[in-house]
């Protein structure tokens, strides 16, 4: 029997029952959404195996850096930390000039990160929300540059920097990578969904200038993506080797250039090389430990807003 075939009191009672069932269903879903899901034993086992596989290279680096070169050549290889860690770290620090290299890499990576995040956010906002001629063509050209191998630009870039008189100077490494096509595309894709056009229009109606719109509307909305892009850019700039090894020398190196000079000789000292690699990795680990929670929190905040 349908609701239309019931008498008015019965129909009202049926509608009330249906509304009560729907309200109860919604209430149960809301209560279930607030509960924390508990992982089973297999989940913990899988996470433990994944964590061990991820940390295995770093653990091996620590073990190798704490041994002698002769012990590393033996079979089976050592599986536990030895007693030469601090000695090898000191040798790597002195032989590679890692003090100067650490400062240079910090300057280079921090400058590239700030420039890439800033310019990529501005360009991504322009491509996502502003209307101008040939915007799609310019976006395709920007994406197209990502398909060009960076090795093809080494010779003309080196000649250009030599003409400017910047050989063996940090700006030679900074300027060519200060703007990123990937960062522009990444920020454009994020802002298309995360930044409502109504917010920009409301700010314009209130009399906000373009600079105020960017500072008070675009940057807060783009903060999670900016954090992710900043972390990726810093890691890539810190680990960059191809262009710095060409543009710089051992008198003014970055960390990767300095590590290239370690363990030289007829028999390379693998323990010292591993000690230098450990020193070059520590700043990245420290940066993630200090800012990882803020970055993950920003990503989760952006996901909840989306």
Structural write-up:
- The protein is built from 14 helices and no strands.
- By secondary structure, the chain is mainly alpha-helical.
- It is globular and about 70 Å long.
- The mean pLDDT is 83.
Individual helix count: 14
* Mean pLDDT over the residues: 83
Number of strands: 0
Order of helical and strand elements: HHHHHHHHHHHHHH
Question: Which features would summarize this protein structure in a list?
Answer:
306 residues; mainly alpha; 14 helices; globular
Q: How do the helices and strands line up, and which of them pair or pack?
A:
Layout: H1 8-34, H2 41-65, H3 69-72, H4 85-96, H5 98-129, H6 135-144, H7 154-163, H8 170-174, H9 181-194, H10 197-205, H11 210-239, H12 242-247, H13 255-259, H14 270-305
Offer a concise description of the structure.
The protein has 306 residues and is mainly alpha-helical. The protein has 14 helices and no strands.
């Amino acid at each position: 029997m349908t609701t239309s075939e019931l008498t008015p009191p019965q129909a009202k009672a049926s509608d009330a029952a249906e509304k009560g069932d729907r309200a109860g269903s919604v209430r149960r879903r809301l209560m279930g959404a607030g509960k924390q899901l508990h992982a089973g034993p297999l989940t913990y086992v899988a996470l433990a195996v994944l964590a061990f596989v991820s940390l295995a290279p770093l653990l091996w680096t620590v073990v190798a850096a704490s041994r002698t070169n002769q012990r590393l050549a033996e079979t089976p290889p050592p599986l536990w930390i030895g007693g030469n860690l601090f000695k090898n770290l000191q040798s790597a620090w002195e032989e590679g000039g890692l003090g100067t290299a650490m400062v240079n890499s910090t300057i280079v990576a921090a400058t590239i990160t700030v420039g890439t995040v800033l310019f990529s956010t501005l360009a991504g906002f322009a491509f996502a929300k502003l209307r101008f001629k040939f915007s799609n063509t310019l976006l395709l050209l920007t994406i197209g540059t990502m398909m060009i191998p960076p090795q093809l630009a080494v010779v003309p870039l080196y000649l250009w920097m030599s003409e400017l008189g910047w050989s063996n100077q940090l700006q030679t490494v900074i300027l060519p990578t200060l703007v990123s096509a990937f960062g522009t595309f990444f920020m454009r894709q994020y802002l298309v969904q995360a930044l409502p056009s109504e917010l920009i229009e409301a700010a314009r109606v209130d009399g906000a200038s373009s600079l105020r719109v960017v500072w008070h509307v675009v940057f807060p909305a783009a903060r999670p993506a900016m954090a992710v892009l900043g972390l990726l850019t810093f890691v890539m700039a810190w680990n960059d080797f191809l262009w710095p090894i060409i543009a710089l020398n051992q008198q003014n190196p970055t960390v990767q250039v300095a590590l290239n000079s370690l363990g030289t000789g007829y028999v390379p000292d693998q323990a010292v090389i591993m000690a230098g690699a450990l020193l070059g990795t520590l700043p990245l680990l420290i940066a993630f430990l200090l800012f990882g929670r803020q970055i993950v929190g920003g990503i989760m905040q952006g996901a909840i807003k989306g």
